[in-house]
Amino acid sequence: MKLSTVATFALALLLVFSVVEKLREHRADRRLQSYATGQVFADSPVQTATSDPPFMLHGYRIRPLAAFALRARVLSRENYYFDRGAGLSRVDLAVGWRRMADPAVYESMHITQGWRWLYFEWNDLPPIPAQEIIESSANMHMIAANPMIERALQKIRKGVYVRITGKLVEVTSRNGWRWTSSLSRTDTGAHACEVVFAESVQVEN
Predict the structure, then answer these.
(1) Which of 7-11, 105-109, 142-146, 185-189 has the weakest average pLDDT?
(2) 20 to 30 Å CA-CA from 88: which of 35, 125, 140, 158?
(3) Sign of CA dihedral 72, 78, 82, 84
């Protein structure tokens, strides 16, 4: 093989390598930029006014406070059988949207539920700002509108995407017990959970 041919071949290989490397760097930069700007894995819940009247369900008075819809990732779920709300709500869903729907974020935390509360734990620093965790996740007490919805709720597992529509509600019993939904996605502590009357539930495969 002539020296000029070898040189031409080497130059061609160098050019191909350069193009491939630039393409790889470009794709990496796009991934980093997407993550840095908060790639949307699921949109924030939608809450609107409602004029629906109160109604009775299983002996409880249900007063709609707002219409509600969300698509979110299930971060955890917990069944309840013996607490005060179990006669109406058998399952709590911990859900996340936006970056809290990203496995790279939520799988780096220890997420648990208990006594109708949601808990987050992490080592050293949180994977995203703590305020963003608060504003992009929620613990929702689910009230099924009918037996079909109840069966759908019981089949939901951690990691799936769910679409839920219904109402945020206030529940009262004959003896004066009251359970009122939060109407904010930025609150924390007691009374910060959503009480959701679920009228439709869809699990995305």
Answers:
(1) 7-11
(2) 158
(3) negative
